[in-house]
Design the sequence.
């Protein structure tokens, strides 16, 4: 088993949250000042999502702040596009600040917002960085030839939803977009794929944990896979592991708010070569497990499938 589940999963549930929520899931996690900071998504009791903050010394025991961290903006452009909620945050650290990408829902569809913070006391909205019909944007924590790079997931009617890459000089204007990885027919990720955790740098390349969806008579199943991108040119995929690395197997992943879902927005590399991978179970609770970077790399290299 590539990912070893933490024995006390789920590590965070709605019962740990001091304000009324129905779920706790799809969290971004990053180390800040020696602590693990988690930004997690919760459905309010009206079905719309907000983002809460929890902190931990060890990455396993989290304490939730009294107040939510991000709720839909109430004025300006962001208010118009976040009316239905803010979802699935991903966090990276670059140029002395943390960048948070999140899905902004409104009557106009879903698009990606980018907020910044230096200390997790307050998130400053920076820009809405896509038009509608995008989810799951992760930004690389390094620049390439002076440009920021992100993995994208635009929606499309005429092709299965795939992973793209785009670049930006300033985090605001993005372009040079290119499709780099597609779902594979009659495979665990045949319906759609999307970026999961922000990529992790290793000596052999960037590890990118992504989600793949398979449609069944009993609804869609969300699983996790992993791909290895070239260190200097992240648009080049060195290898994609053919088999999934995690699927819903525990009761809290099989049943919940949405059945049969493991969905990751965060992976935290540790000094000993291990990686803490965080995922939402059944859109309902937060879980964590550990993997080894070298083993994930070998998983990609030893039994790869075509990215396109
Ligand atoms: C996706 C998103 C995720 C969610 C998943 C499973 O489309 O809405 O936030 O975890 O579906 O319901």
Sequence:
């Amino acid at each position: 088993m590539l990912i070893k589940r933490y024995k006390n999963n789920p590590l965070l549930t709605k019962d740990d949250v001091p304000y009324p929520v129905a779920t706790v899931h799809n969290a971004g996690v990053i180390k800040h000042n020696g602590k693990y900071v988690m930004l997690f998504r919760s459905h309010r009791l009206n079905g719309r999502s907000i983002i809460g903050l929890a902190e931990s010394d060890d990455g396993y025991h989290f304490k939730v702040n009294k107040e939510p961290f991000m709720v839909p903006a109430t004025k300006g452009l962001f208010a118009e596009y976040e009316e239905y909620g803010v979802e699935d945050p991903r966090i990276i650290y670059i140029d002395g600040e943390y960048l948070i990408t999140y899905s902004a829902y409104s009557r106009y569809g879903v698009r990606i917002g980018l907020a910044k913070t230096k200390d997790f006391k307050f998130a400053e909205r920076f820009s809405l960085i896509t038009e509608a019909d995008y989810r799951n944007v992760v930004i690389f924590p390094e620049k390439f030839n002076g440009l920021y790079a992100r993995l994208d997931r635009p929606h499309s009617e005429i092709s299965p939803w795939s992973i793209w890459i785009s670049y930006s000089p300033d985090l605001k204007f993005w372009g040079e977009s290119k499709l780099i990885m597609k779902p594979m027919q009659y495979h665990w990720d045949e319906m759609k794929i999307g970026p999961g955790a922000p990529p992790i740098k290793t000596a052999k390349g960037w590890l990118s944990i992504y989600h793949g969806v398979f449609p069944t008579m009993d609804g869609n199943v969300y699983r996790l896979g992993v791909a290895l991108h070239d260190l200097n040119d992240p648009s080049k995929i060195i290898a994609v592991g053919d088999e999934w690395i995690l699927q819903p197997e525990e009761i809290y992943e099989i049943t919940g708010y949405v059945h049969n879902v493991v969905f990751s927005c965060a992976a935290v590399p540790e000094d000993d070569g291990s990686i803490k991978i965080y995922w939402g179970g059944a859109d309902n609770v937060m879980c964590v497990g550990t993997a080894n970077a070298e083993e994930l790399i070998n998983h990609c290299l030893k039994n790869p499938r075509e990215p396109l």
